[in-house]
Amino acid sequence: MGASSLQELFEHELGDIYFAEHRMVDAYEQFAANTNDQEVTELFEAHREQVGEQIERLVQIFDTMGEPPQEEECLGIEGLLDEYSEFEGEDPDPSALDLYNITTAGKTQRYEISAYESLVEVAKALENEEAAELLRETLDEEKETLGQLQDQGATFDYGSIPT
Ligand SMILES: [Fe+2]
Predict the structure, then answer these.
(1) Which one, 55, 71, 89, 98, has least CB within 10 Å?
(2) Does the structure show a pLDDT above 80 at 3?
(3) Ion ligand 1 — residues with CB under 5 Å?
């Protein structure tokens, strides 16, 4: 698609993150199913529920423009999840996969944080305050989740992975 105006760029980026969030619902379910640590499983499940609310906010934002929600294939998220599937498919040691769940989730959170930061700025430039506010809410949630993942990574028992 040719994004020739700021409005079109906004809609393109919105469609991109709308696609990405849908992929993340399944991804967080997969991370949770592949994790042996109860606390981390709960973190993944909690964020999975939050993604549902984030998708609802995106629908509301499309609504502020009188547009139906539309997905644009997001190669960034797909690439990260493809790498995950590749590693998972190699029958990894369960502890290694435990760690990889956390780090992959962290990578996707960073991607989303960048996307939402940019979307907030574009919404402000378009003077769509309602959209900017909704996007800020999600951005805060994404940052909080990244922080929780970083805490889990910092306390991870690397000694549990065979060398
Ligand atoms: Fe998200």
Answers:
(1) 89
(2) no
(3) 54, 112
**Tokens 């960048």 belong to residue:** 114
Q: What CATH number is given to the structural domain containing 13?
A: 1.20.1260.10
Residue 52 domain flag:
yes
What are 124-160's pLDDT values in tens digits?
999 999 999 999 999 999 999 999 999 999 999 999 9
Q: How far is the CA of 65 from the centre of ligand 1 (A)?
A: 21
Average confidence score pLDDT of the chain: 96
Instruction: Please measure the distance between the N-terminal and C-terminal CA atoms of the chain and give it in whole angstroms.
Output: 47
Total number of domains in the chain: 1
Q: Is 163 within the bounds of a domain?
A: no
Residue numbers of the domain that contains 18: 6-157
